[in-house]
Amino acid sequence: MSRRELEVGSFVHLLGLESGLLAPEATYRIEQLLTLGDGATLYKVRHENEPFDRVVSERELGRT
């Protein structure tokens, strides 16, 4: 998945069951892009029924 597809406001699915992340299978909205010092990007995502954000890597996301 290219970074261009993953912008703030995009909707994604967490692939948590494959990576061991415990998260409900649902649609999440990208709230913020977090760039690390080495150039890698993490994504702050939120599900409307959860009172908190999750921070995940691109490999843990799937397009809706």
Describe the protein's architecture and organization.
The protein is mainly beta. The protein has one domain (3-63). The chain has one helix at 16-19, and strands spanning 11-14, 27-35, 41-46, 53-57, 61-63. It has a five-stranded antiparallel sheet with strand order 4-3-2-1-5, with no helix packed on it. β2 and β3 form a beta hairpin. The longest helix has 4 residues, at 16-19. The radius of gyration is 11 Å and the shape is globular. The relative contact order is 0.31.
| Count of separate structural domains | 1
Strand order of the largest sheet: 4-3-2-1-5
The global form is globular
Give a quick account of the main beta sheet: strands, pairing sense, barrel closure: 5 strands, antiparallel
Oligomer: single chain
Work out the radius of gyration. Answer: 11 Å
Count of β-strands: 5
Helix content estimate: under 10%
Strand fraction band? Answer: 35-45%
Number of helices: 1
Low-confidence stretches: none
> Can you give the mean pLDDT?
82
Structural classification: mainly beta
N→C terminal distance = 12 Å
- Topology as a string of helices (H) and strands (E): EHEEEE
